[in-house]
Amino acid sequence: MTQPVWLSERVQWIGALDPTMRSFDIVLKTPNGTTYNAYAVRGSEGVAVIDTVKEACAEQFFTRLEAVASYDEIKVIVLNHLEPDHTGALPELMRRAPQAKLYISKSAQLMLKALLNQQDIDYTPVGTSDTVSLGDRTLRFLHTPYLHWPDTQCTYLEEEYMLFSGDVFGCHFCDERLFNDKVGDFRFAFEYYYAHIMRPFREHVLNALAILEPLRMNIIAPTHGPILRDQPKRYMQRYRELSGQRLQSEVNADEKTLVIFYISAYGSTTQMAQMIRAGAEQVAGVRASLYDMEGGDADLFVDLVEDADGILIGSPTINGDAVKPAWDLVSSFAKINVRGKLAGAFGSYGWSGEAVRMLEDRLRGLKMRLPQSGVRIKLIPSSEELEECRRYGQEAGEHLMGVNAPRVLDMADLLASRQAQV
Amino acid sequence: MAKAKVTFSDVNVTVNVPVGTRIIELSEAVGSYIAYNCREGDCGVCLFEVIKGQENLSPVSKEESSVILTRFQEIMDGWRTTKSLDALQEKMQRENFIGKHCRLACQTQVFGDVVVAPL
Ligand code: FES
Ligand SMILES: [Fe+2]
Ligand SMILES: [Fe+2]
């Protein structure tokens, strides 16, 4: 199949099938391959190409495009999203259709320059309610940033109630029958894509839905996976559900939540966790809770972490490393947005206490904020050491509430105290 | 020796330092969330924001500003680092941003009082 596919009398799919792809961006599993969907819209005064494909699939794209229009008819190129899987064929398309005008979202400008590695590009930045006319067809732009890059937008074909949504409502699923009422069961792929690509941007999903839901919708045409022509609004509804609150949170707006995860071999790390919690609870406005990692699994904890303002992790050091449940928990943070949350690590050890520093490094790598260095205690905590834990918890609480007392120190003291810890 | 005060606003810590100290010599020790990697002005990871006292910092070199620009593009590409991207992009677009409000911690030396924060 190298023919274009009709969505309507004026709109054709000119994308590419990539059935052999098995993992996308390394982290996403795509057991069934994927598609890069691009579309051509014909108006009485010219043709618009909406998105392109990955560079390696450019041949398929150009073959289909040529079956639909000649290059000199192309008046408009719309880029809903500048990631390479949709802009790989762009430079070549611009060479073949030099007269075509480029339309990108306002927040895509720097990226376009970086992508094409060139400063003087002719393009038109557009935002919500800007339109471009193709004669008897009109494209309207909708600013829906951060789904899942800062540059993303959607494009609405007004006369046909058709939404070109970019990665939103897409999924990695390759079936040459293309339409949601024809392809195999892709529900898993749809949910998986939401969970891994869109979920970290939940607030932005809600903002986008507010713009998209009022629109009349005949077809949603995303850049990956099935074209949603049968009950397209259902998929919007599903995004609404997935991005919604689970249970109304009982936490007040002026309170902050601290979640303390721990796992203990002989009870020492447990004692530390309890003292840390007690310390944090002394700070007005902090709601601290304790979770034993042995009693749950990382997939359940991740919801908790998503809503928490601060996360502390306690692990003993065993064989010079933190224990597996602690690493599993930290790995699961990649599914959500933890950037800027307060974080810390603590733990007891017998011989050498590497776990705490290792966890701290990883948390820092996730761009979390670690204003304190974690408590490490050899063997069984003494009462002074438990007091140190309490203070650690209290300081964590104060950092959360932004009430930690300003500290002034001399560089020499600062570096000396670091030396002592390592 | 002449002294200067460096305040890390994210952790509310002020350090008295001899002039000529680089920000990176302090940032990790105080627990500020200014990251670093190469320590040689190559990777751009140590990008930070100058809140006050930009005139008290060593001048920005050509190399530093080009590393900042490249790093910025990397950040744009890394979709996980989202929350402040909007703000970041806006700022970068404002004229003169690079090398004024936004510096590399491993390159920047302190010659007077400054207030800094992670980006
Ligand atoms: S740490 Fe690499 S540029 Fe500063
Ligand atoms: Fe994408
Ligand atoms: Fe994509």
TrEMBL record, chain A:
Q: Which positions fall inside the Flavodoxin-like domain? A: 258-397
Q: Which UniProt keywords apply?
A: Oxidoreductase
Tell me the leader sequence span: none
What InterPro entries does the record tag this protein with? Flavodoxin/NO_synth, Flavodoxin_CS, Flavoprotein-like_sf, Metallo-B-lactamas, ODP_dom, RibonucZ/Hydroxyglut_hydro, Rubredoxin-O_OxRdtase
Q: What is its EC number?
A: 1.-.-.-
MF (Gene Ontology):
electron transfer activity; FMN binding; metal ion binding; oxidoreductase activity
What protein does this entry describe?
A: Type A flavoprotein fprA
Q: What is the lineage of its organism?
A: unclassified sequences, metagenomes, ecological metagenomes
TrEMBL record, chain B:
Query: Which residue intervals define the domain 2Fe-2S ferredoxin-type in the entry?
Result: 4-119
Which Gene3D superfamilies has this protein been placed in? 3.10.20.30
Show the InterPro entries listed in the entry. Answer: 2Fe-2S_ferredoxin-like_sf, 2Fe-2S_ferredoxin-type, 2Fe2S_fd_BS, Beta-grasp_dom_sf
Q: What GO annotations for molecular function exist for this entry?
A: 2 iron, 2 sulfur cluster binding
Protein name listed in UniProt: 2Fe-2S iron-sulfur cluster binding domain protein
List the source organism. mine drainage metagenome
